[in-house]
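Much of what follows relies on a compact textual record of a protein's fold. Think of the row as the fold of the chain written in a discrete alphabet. An example makes this concrete, so a full record is given next.


***
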Amino acid sequence: RYRQTALGVLWVVLQPLLGAGIFAFVFGRIARFDSGSVPYVLFAYAGLLGWNLFSGIVLKSTTSLVSNAALISKVAFPRLLLPLSGVASCLLDFAVGVLGGALLAVLHGFVPGPWLVLSPLWLLLLVVFATGLGLIFGSLAVAYRDVVHALPVLLQLFLYASPVGYGLGMVPEGWTRSLYLLNPLATLIEGFRSALLGSGPPGGDWIGYAVVMSALTLGVGLLVFRARERDFADVI
């Protein structure tokens, strides 16, 4: 992917870093969003790490079948390998991004707390939820290419409906926050960032809801994928 690029794999770090810089200027300087005791650029970078992993898995899993149409129509192999390969490549990019985040934390003199040990669990939930959505959208995209065109718009809505550039505490309590947290990604992003920054997990029963929805989404994704897998070679 990074062949014939001047910066190569550094793009993996630059993408969330540039995004965090823009968020820090717009939300941190102009809108003055509260990031607690954490420097806002580090706060935004941690949120973008989780978001980029989620969006990358969904996008790659969705387009993996369509972009390999010739392979699917000519070779017999487990089709599930294609979306899962996208998950693996996103995790590799994520690992490089974590190294960039660690360097950013060192430059700001930030030391994470004991909640850091929970970050792999939040990471697993993000991967499970994103993979489930990717399997559903990817299966539908084989027959309905509109999915590929609509997905970037849907992800843009998910970005602003999730606490990436702002914290969950900025969402008004009551029915507004309850409606907001119907999006499981909101809890997953907030929990992942809270673990990285050592502020503890978000409270309430919404963690259980996010866990159930993540597992349910993956289960539905596998069922949809298996049900439509036989027709991929004919339809694609």
Q: What stands out?
A: The two ends are 24 Å apart (CA to CA). The chain has a mean pLDDT of 84.
